[in-house]
Amino acid sequence: MDVAELVRLRTRHPEAIAEAAARRTRRPLLGPSGRLMILAADHPARGALGVGDRKFAMANRADLLRRLCLALSRPGVDGVLATADILDDLLLLGALDGKVVMGSMNRGGLQGASFELDDRFTGHRPEDLARLGFDAGKLLLRIDYDDPGSLNTLESTARAVDEMAARRLPLFVEPFISRRGPDGRLRNDLSAEAVTRSIAIASGLGGSSAYTWLKVPVTEDPDDMAEVMAASTLPAVLLGGDIGDAAENRAAAYEKWRGALQLPTVRGLVVGRSLLYPADGDVAAAVDTAVGLL
Question: How far apart are CA 38 and CA 31, in angstroms?
Answer without folding.
Answer: 13
